[in-house]
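Page 37, continued from 36.
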């Protein structure tokens, strides 16, 4: 064992360029394996989180929301906007057949001015009637949301005093939500009375024009609906679009379907690129290791003459391939980890997809796989080549090289 290890280190030091090139090839293999798995799992997690956060059969927004960013845009990208359903439309909505329960929300976009700690979408809801937000945020707070309390998304930073300021007033951060991979990570949630106070302060200041004519007491930006048993969400949504003016009803299934379709397209693209690079890298590794072993026939013959057994030679070759494979794999994983944050944000924005990175345990599994696969391929190729060469007669090997 000591002989094999010493021989391995000498071979690597004697041919540093060859070892470095092999490390680079393995690096690409490991990087591609880790990054491909990371991206696909993150997209799957984001899709599941998006489905869980929607929590309603139908989403109704005013037609004017199309110019500001609809609810799916708010969820996916955090696009902010102030838009409200006309009162007469709300009254007609109550008369639509097939609605089992509904919950309203009020949207308020905080300004960039010095009035506010951050520009975010503030979402006010009614805990008494809500069936979408409350089940989600209950795990993040120990008590009910009181007046003056806010729940913030995972990407919102807040000072040590535990408060954020909006329109001249401070509000206590009662909890922070787990990351979802959507625009809700940059949203603020509060109850109706608190957002009413915020809206009144905003209407008297920098948001005067945006909130002109809006009564925060009963204004509604979005209505989330669950349909009765026996009714199709798409049919109820069509009924709303036909009979209620100035609103747009969208079945949540179609929103999720659009996201799922985008996920499918991107995941197929990632899979094709990953498999393609993998195949190329594997072929290169096999070819390079085979050529490397073939070039060392004389070296193996001399070692055999000096008394080294075939087992010792194979052991040294496998150790060399193992060291190179592990070194290249670890470098590939480090580079991949450094690129995950900017790449994740780029995919979420440019492909309009929710993106939620795997937990630590899954990252460990991905890293282990990205190390083991190149290691097995490299060592197996080197050992098979060495066995083939070491099996030949020593004299024949010396004559071939002469």
């Amino acid at each position: 064992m000591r002989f094999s290890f010493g021989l391995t280190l000498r071979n690597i030091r004697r041919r540093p360029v060859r070892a470095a090139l092999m490390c680079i090839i393995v690096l690409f293999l490991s990087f591609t394996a880790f990054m491909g798995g990371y991206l696909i799992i993150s997209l799957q997690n984001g899709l599941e989180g998006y489905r869980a956060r929607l929590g309603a059969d139908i989403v109704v927004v005013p037609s004017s929301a199309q110019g500001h960013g609809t609810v799916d845009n708010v969820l996916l990208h955090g696009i902010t906007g102030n838009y409200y359903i006309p009162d007469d439309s709300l009254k007609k909505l109550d008369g639509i057949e097939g609605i089992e329960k509904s919950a309203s929300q009020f949207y308020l976009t905080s300004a960039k001015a010095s009035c506010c700690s951050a520009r975010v979408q503030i979402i006010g809801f009614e805990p008494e009637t809500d069936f979408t937000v409350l089940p989600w945020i209950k795990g993040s707070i120990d008590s009910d949301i009181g007046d003056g309390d806010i729940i913030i998304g995972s990407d919102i930073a807040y000072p040590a005093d535990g408060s954020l300021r909006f329109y001249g007033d401070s509000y206590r951060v009662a909890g922070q939500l787990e990351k979802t991979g959507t625009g809700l990570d940059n949203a603020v949630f509060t109850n109706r009375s608190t957002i009413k106070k915020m809206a009144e302060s905003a209407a008297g200041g920098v948001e005067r024009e945006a909130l002109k004519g809006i009564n925060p007491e009963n204004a509604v930006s979005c209505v989330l609906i669950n349909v009765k048993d026996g009714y199709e969400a798409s049919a109820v949504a069509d009924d709303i679009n036909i009979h209620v003016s100035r609103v747009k009803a969208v079945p949540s299934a179609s929103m999720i379907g659009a996201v799922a379709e985008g996920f499918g397209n991107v995941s197929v693209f990632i899979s094709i690129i990953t498999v393609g690079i993998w195949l190329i890298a594997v072929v290169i590794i096999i070819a390079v290791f085979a050529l490397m072993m073939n070039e060392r026939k004389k070296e193996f013959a001399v070692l055999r003459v000096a008394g080294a057994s075939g087992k010792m030679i194979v052991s040294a070759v496998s150790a060399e391939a193992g060291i190179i494979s592990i070194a290249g794999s670890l470098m590939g994983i480090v580079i991949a980890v450094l690129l995950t944050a900017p790449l994740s944000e780029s995919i979420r924005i440019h492909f309009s997809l929710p993106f939620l990175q795997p937990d630590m345990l899954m990252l460990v599994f991905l890293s282990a796989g990205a190390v083991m696969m190149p290691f097995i391929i490299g060592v197996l190729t080197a050992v098979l080549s060495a066995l083939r060469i070491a099996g030949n007669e020593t004299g024949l090997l010396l004559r071939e090289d002469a």
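Strands lie at 58-62, 99-109, 121-125, 149-152, 163-166, 169-176, 187-191, 222-227, 247-251. Flag for discussion at group meeting. Residues 26 and 195 are 55 Å apart (CA to CA).
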